[in-house]
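Think of the structure tokens as a kind of shorthand, similar to the way a musician reads notation: each symbol stands for something richer, in this case the local conformation of the backbone. In the example below we present two proteins back to back. Begin with the first one, reading the sequence and then the tokens, and try to describe in your own words what changes along the chain.
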Amino acid sequence: MKTKITALIALFLLSISATAQIDRSVQPKPGPAPAITLEVPGEFELKNGLKVLVVENHKLPRVSFSLVIDNQPAVEGNIAGVSGILGSMMGNGTTSISKDEFNEEIDFLGARLSFGSSNAYGSSLTKYSERILELMADAAMNPLLTEEEFQKEKEKAIEGLKSNAKSVDAVASRVGSALSYGKKHPYGEFVTEETLNNITLDNVRAHFLKNYNPNNAYLVVVGDVDFRTIEKQVKKYFKKWDKGIDVTKNIPEVYNNVNATEINFVDMPNAVQSNISVTSNVKLKMGDPDYHAVLIANKILGGGFGSYLNMNLREEHGYTYGARSSVGTDRYGASRFNASTAVRNAVTDSAVVESLKEIKRIKTEKVSAEDLKNAKAKYVGDFVLALERPQTIANYALNIKLNDLPKDFYKTYLTKINAVSIEDVQRVANTYFSDKNARVIVVGKGSEVVTNLEKTGIPIKYFDPFATEVSKPVFSKPVPAGVTAQTVLDAYLNAVGGKTTLENVTTLVQEMSASFQGQNMAMTLKQQSPNLIATDVSILGMGSVFKQAFNGETGYMAQMGNKQPMPAEAVEKAKAKKGLFEEINLLNDASKKLSVSGIEPVDGADAYVIVIEDKDGETSKNYYDVTSGLKIKSVSTTKGPSGKDVTQERTYGDYKEVNGIKFPHITSVPMGGQNVELKVSAIKVNEPLTAADFE
């Protein structure tokens, strides 16, 4: 032991001595790019055209299977969405195994098996791998495509569209693709409720027969396998997969870039921030001579935290949490340059100007040697790290085949990255990054951002959420004479049943449900006059996950069993409420300042906007339909735990009468990039509640 300790001390002293001799003021010179030795996967091909790549790796007793069907992109037209429905139906049983039996066996084996419209993926322990391969083959060749499952998936797809109808990100993505490529291009067309309703089960089956075949398919096998064994297994399970008819599809040309930079604006009155995308079409393939230089140029412009765009918009100006850019590659010559960010409404115009400034900067000013070195180092590091994963070898081999790349593409990758010069960066930036003929697609709240966008001097065209050009929207109309906050609130109270009827309500219980990220939630809301309230949220299979209660004097919040007292500020606000209906509280609370700011459109209907300002300076807005008087939207802004403003929006619809009072039965809340719909299943008015309900 003493000898070991002595040796360690000696080694430590030697390291100190060596360190002392290094001149830290001189930056070390980069060494040569590491030599890349890539394993060549084993290959074979079945008579039906299925090509198989095998990468053996025996470090862990696991195997993965990736099936890729290399179909040309195609326009689906009036049945757009048929491939998506097919993908959701695949992998849910076969003609010989029921859906339940299929899924139960996979779960029992601790395996994974998933399908898309042109791909599949499976993984398992080595000892179960042959069975997973067999199930994959069966599901690929003999999917269980029933009318019952078709209707379920079709309804899910329609619900997904409705859920994303008010998603700024979803609208921005759809409009950006449609305007760039054209609605009749495979990359530009989009799914609508109408096209989904056009789809029949026969359409799905026909799509499967035409497109899901081995003609241009690749099966990639990675893991603890023996080449000869896997060759026998693949032939055994996939040899009956009949070869289909090769179909050459006519891919239309993409739209040309605009002659001069313009703003394409989509008004989303519900938007609490703006989605900005500076985009232009490019033709770039992985095999092009410029490819590696474009990677480096994009990394410097917007490909990482220290990029031009991010350092400007996030670090210098604080407009956003992040700004990024990307340049796509496409073997069919249809891809885009895109610089994007999301910012608060107040700085939308400034973010547009600064984004264009940074794009111009990399085109007109040479990048620094430091920025170039850092960008190269990042790519070198990521590339070398990726090589440690066996899946990488397979992916690279597949990429070479799919993109018709030279066989030494990845062997020379680092050499070509390191060969990129400052001049190369500027040259490709001028070729592929556009600030003079770009579409600046902005999706946001027009009433708050358009006036300032007009001041940029960039021409503005207006589009609806489905990329159809429209006239400039009317964002706000003047309030007619005689309309006040009092008259609007009185109209609302009359519309829902009358002030007297509402004042006679002493208890209220609402039962609601919602679906979020595949989880089914249930919520019960109990209220008792004047201000008692209790909320209980549960998730199917998990039980109660959130509770909040206020008994008139004290309250608490409990999340996943973690119970905490309600903050003093929240207690005071809860005590201030005197009644179960907000509008009655507003009329009776002299501490709140109410005003009608204008008339704004909400989902196609004109609404009076009442601005509510409390004594602490916090503001909120309620929107009341001009025709019906009903409340159809509310927006509140409060200070979050970090001190930043947190905005919450709700829209209300499907009003139904219960005990002489109209209640909204659907409340939509933006959450996690999508809209979550709270659907009321039951409302109980003036049913007895006890103190225990609020403890």
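Once you have a description of the first chain, move to the second and do the same.
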Amino acid sequence: MDIKALLSQLTLEEKASLCSGIDSWRTEPIPRLSIPSAVLSDGPHGLRKEISDENGQKTGTVESVCFPTGGAVACSFDRSLIRRMGEALGEECQAENVHVILGPAVNIKRSPLCGRNFEYLSEDPYLAGEMAASYIQGVESQGVGTSLKHFAANNQENRRMTVSAEIDERTLREIYLAGFETAVKKGKPTTVMCSYNKINGVYSSENKRLLTNILRKEWGFDGLVMSDWGAVNRRPDGVLAGLDLEMPSSHGENDAEIVKAVKEGRIREEDVDIVAGRVLKLVYDSLAKEKKNVSYSKEEHHTLARKIASESMVLLKNENGILPLDANKKIAFIGKFAEVPRYQGGGSSHINSYKLTGALEAVKEISPVSYAQGYILEEDRTEEALLKEAVEAAKAADVAVIFAGLPDAFESEGYDRPHMKMPECQNRLIESVCEVQKHVVVVLHNGAPVEIPWAGKVDGILESYLGGQAVGGAQVDVLFGKVNPSGQLAETIPLKLSDNPSYLNFPGEKDRVEYREGIFVGYRYYDKKEMEVLYPFGYGLSYTTFSYSGLKADKAEMNDTDTLQVSVTVKNTGDRAGKEVIQLYVGSLPGPEKAAIRPVRELKGFEKVELQPGESKKVSFTLDKRSFAFYNSEIPGWYVEDGEYEISIGKSSRELAESLTVTVHPASPIRPHYTMESTVGDLLKSEKAKTRFKAYMAKMFPGQDTDEELLTMEAVMDQVPVHSICSFHPNVTLRELQEIVDEANR
């Protein structure tokens, strides 16, 4: 389709109309020129396509398969698995004539309290970006577009449509944009969705620096930018910023504002052509990728959802070999979530699931169990009769498995959690069962971390997160050993809420939230502080054991324009087949040429491998400049400081198996520039200035001419500005000092 020729046939009013939807889920058609609509639908972990009756009244959403949420599947650390999930979603979209599914959600988990954390992938931008890219590749391989969201710094639900996220440039680049950057460059999404919030006082929907300068010019994005639903502030400003499509429809109001702005000369018609042209490209590209008469098996997708959920669950504790369960023992399932699991979050991602399998139903395939409800979900109130029944069931069993977690009302899109606590009635249930039963396993259902005050009293803890419609089958698969758990935490679980680095500044004051923790988000903060946590980032147990050996790099010294090949051998040293996530971390070691404050270590590579008992595999990683760089706002750009870097292979950010050191040199080192405001200490780093300056030191402090004495004086003067030296001796002039500075700069 010749988009330019088509635009030439449109009136200004028609072009403006293309820049917003005709309703909640379709772009505006132009019947006069037979221009059709593209169809959008909510995601990201299932297809949420709205349906209407013959009168256009909404009647619900289509039945589809609810896969594990982003917070769950990220714990798989498995690019191929989330790509397969994306492929399945693409198939469902094609079957329902949906052109774009809204997802993935790659926002960083800044605080455990964010109500939408269940949708988000990780506290770590590298993991989030890599998993998002694979998801996008999967969906897009089926001819269906994705919408990478929410761009950017949408890290809370409180006042999300008005709040300004105040973030310094380095933090913005390293933490809150890096995942988007990877997803854009590797995944190549069809669309990007701007967020509701402001970034440093400017709404995302009209932030030209964000939507055009960074997204398009720096990262090379060539797709369409759409708004989140209702995120538009001043529509003409959005046109200038690079916001192509407003969703949903503003019923012609903002279209008229665009036309008015053109007629008043505030924007050009050529500007409208650019954004309208991108909408037309989306429409015709989508139509070209349509597949006719597509069908898929919901049951096969349910089976896939079960597999994804089982490989995403994280075994947090397994004392005394309580897991896997022995099917021949008396087992009691306790807790309402065993019967009716919590498997997804609330809000725009809520799926009308094709079916739902709870653990109580799934366990019938393996073993008879007793069951006690234990608690109610409607309110946090202990029903004494239910508690008594649960205690009695636990007494009569060899093992008690308690299914607990957060009810729907505790976390959802639209509001943040006030605390990290589970319902007190559930905590009391667990404590009561532990008093009568030594062998207790707790299975958790939650979208984000919870405080676990009873962690020391139970033998086993299985973190399910929100595992999708097949979560019950997946739980049973893991509990009884049909599946060896291989999930690793994509976020840190702190001991308590106040340990979180954003605690004092979340969710901010009125319409302003300051990201004062800077780059120290999640494990970057906890590890730097050497703070005790409940479970560290990357942590997860298995029913087998693994060892690492032979960590090697193909060079010990390199320029930042080179790549580094790193390899390690991992071996299954246990008696069960299992999967291991090999995590590679890079840390900047202190050195004379290093001034930037850095985390102790940062995730820069991961691979998941499956190994039979006794089997070994060599795993390789490629590290480039970005693996060692920080964002230097003074350049501005990514910069590698000269010096040593530690490369570690770990089972988590806290459990490192092997390490080695490499030296990295910047190919284009930043040459320091000295002024009269520079400190003496900084100036003495210049070999050109050092000799002459020492002569002046001897002049200022006669009789102290030994090296030791001069060193003492240098230490005293280290942080004194150069221009202040003349205050210490009448024979030293500003002109002479300027000459030394000029010499250092030559």
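Compare your description with these statements about the second chain. The longest helix spans residues 269-288.
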